[in-house]
């Protein structure tokens, strides 16, 4: 039962952090949260420990527990990792298509509808929907690359990257151009062109990293 409560607290707090309900540096009072969630402090404490392991929460000695505040430098480093991981995942999946382990047309049939929906949600006030579809797109590629280490490394920073997109995407990302890039990625992977898939996936993430670097220079 405690585990069920812990999972509930974890999922609720995680969703609030990722979607901006809990802002960076916001304090997390275990007793207040337990009262709000109508549960004891033990599952809340367990949930916060999991969020700390995810890198979304930080405990500052003699000060308290807070939603982690990511600096621009933190985000750039995160995207350096994602850029490398994404390129390799695209490469491996295209290799699987070329080897006949994955049907390119079936893969295209899974990915294209997501991109079609992204194209229908390009407006700034639709950025959250667009980002969620983008996340689903890349998750399929990582899941089907069949490299658990690469996938788990990506998932460890994925939530942090979601918080990046919620900040960067509405203002700075050219979502229409990103949709075109997604379609090129699909074509390369479905054709089994591993080197082209790697470059397209890396270049796709590189654009966001360049945006972050420009923002850093403006500070």
UniProtKB/TrEMBL annotation:
Which CDD domains does the entry mention?
A: WHTH_GntR
Q: Does the keyword Transmembrane helix apply?
A: no
The record, for InterPro entries, names: GntR_C, TF_FadR/GntR_C, Tscrpt_reg_HTH_GntR, WH-like_DNA-bd_sf, WH_DNA-bd_sf
Q: For this UniProt record, give its keywords in alphabetical order, as a comma-separated list.
A: DNA-binding, Plasmid, Transcription, Transcription regulation
**What superkingdom heads the lineage?**
Bacteria
The protein's name: GntR family transcriptional regulator
Query: Pfam families, from UniProt?
Result: FCD, GntR
According to the entry, every stretch annotated as the HTH gntR-type domain falls at 3-70
């Amino acid at each position: 039962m405690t585990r069920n409560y812990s999972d509930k607290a974890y999922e609720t707090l995680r969703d609030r952090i990722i979607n901006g309900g809990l802002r960076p540096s916001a304090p997390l009072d275990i007793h207040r949260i337990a009262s709000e969630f109508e549960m004891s402090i033990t599952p809340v404490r367990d949930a916060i420990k999991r969020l700390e392991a995810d890198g979304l929460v930080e405990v500052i000695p003699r000060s308290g527990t807070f939603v982690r505040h990511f600096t621009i430098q933190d985000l750039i480093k995160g995207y350096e990792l994602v850029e490398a991981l994404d390129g390799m995942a695209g490469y491996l999946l295209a290799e699987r298509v070329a080897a006949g382990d994955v049907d390119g047309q079936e893969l295209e049939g899974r990915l294209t509808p997501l991109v079609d929906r992204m194209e229908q949600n390009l407006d700034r006030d639709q950025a959250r929907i667009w980002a969620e579809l983008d996340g689903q797109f890349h998750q399929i590629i990582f899941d089907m690359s069949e490299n658990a280490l690469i996938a788990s490394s990506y998932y460890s920073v994925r939530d942090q990257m979601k918080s990046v997109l919620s900040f960067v995407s509405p203002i700075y990302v050219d979502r229409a151009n990103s949709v075109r890039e997604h379609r090129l990625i699909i074509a390369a992977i479905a054709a089994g062109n591993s080197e082209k898939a790697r470059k397209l996936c890396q270049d796709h993430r590189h654009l966001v990293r360049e945006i972050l670097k420009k923002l850093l220079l403006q500070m």
